[in-house]
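Title: Request for sanity check on site-specific DNA-methyltransferase (cytosine-N(4)-specific) prediction

Description:
We are preparing a figure and want to confirm that the structure record we downloaded matches what your pipeline produces today. Could someone re-run it with the sequence below and paste the raw structure tokens into this thread? We only need the token string, no images.
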Amino acid sequence: MAHTPLVSPNPPDWDFRDAETKEGAHVIHTYPAMMIPQVARHLIARLRVRLPDAVTLLDPFCGAGTVLVEAAAQGLLAWGNDLNPLAVRIARARTTPIPGADLDRAIAFFRDGLTLEKMTQFEGPIPEFPRRDFWFQPPVSQALAFILNQIAALPFPDLRYLAEAVFSETVRRVSNSRNREFKLYRMPPQELNSFCPDVLGEFLAHFRRYAEGLRESYPDLTRPAEPPRVVEGDSRRLSDIPDRHFDLLVTSPPYGDSRTTVAYGQFSRLSLEWLGLPQKIARGVDQTLLGGRPHQRPLPQYLPSATGSASIEQIHARDPRRAREVQAFYYDLDQTLNVLTKKLKPGALAAWVVANRTVKGVVLPTNAIITELSQAHGFVLIEDLTRNIPSKRMPRANSPSNVAGETGLTMTKEHLVTLRYEG
């Protein structure tokens, strides 16, 4: 992989207000609440100044793989983990270098195979799943099934994840869901009446665009001794991640409220259904994330964070059910921290990028809570930086209770919390 030269550990402005965030492999697929590459890039460089002999990096909530791409660009051996099968596919697409000749052959393969004439002759089955015809017009479903058939015949195994990422983005753009949003809302009838997407054209255009992104990130196919590894797994276990292996951790955990804030499950569902995952998985992403199923499992009363406990008590006075949901999230985050102590080397540095959401009018200071939870597991705080989030695909006010007319501020700042694991 092409190594990023001389990345500054002290950027003049952590906001990166005018930065191009869709560069190189980062152009591949949208994803909710992604860390922008500039933050990951400079944060990794900042950690390496403090720990210049660092070789390995872990991102236990890797999402679309932003941190992994940037870690590999700086010569680190990176591992990523995520519980969302779509995130894992996107991250693998971003972190798998493909020879330029293979990209050219794949472009030709799809260009020659995905024609209107051939599609009219296609008689293959169209995947069935609940409410398919609610979210997709019949001609769109036929075209998507035709593309899937072509992907199955792709003669380049290393390109499978890239092709699936392109397909997933195409699904998002040709569905009846309002575009540019992460939650599933059907277009109003007047828009649907005039909505006639070019499904094959969308796929081909995105394949070319993503291929160029890979060429930009991997121009000469130089790379670390090991390209990034991406594991589909639970951060509370990390059973497929090696122990005592990592010098650095850079990550951004989920916010803990997919229903009203960052809709990972809704964002992923249609793509996963088209890719053939079982309904339990395709529709169950939110239930498996941190804080999922809070009312179906026992939770301990004690949380090793005075700040977190006080915040939960405030919410409990207003809504006990919501308080339990918040408690479940921080309990699961604490479980992840416990597991991370087995994966990090003594002296390892951990950087968390977090934002403080609001529940029932109570601001949850996650930066302070994660610091206190970490300290209970043998970490020492080094610094807590703050950056403004210049633009977000979330409104400045949302409905945190899912009640019409009740609004609360969404997150406009992030904290970059760095700690050292004393072991």
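Thanks, this matches our download. Residues 1-299 form one domain.
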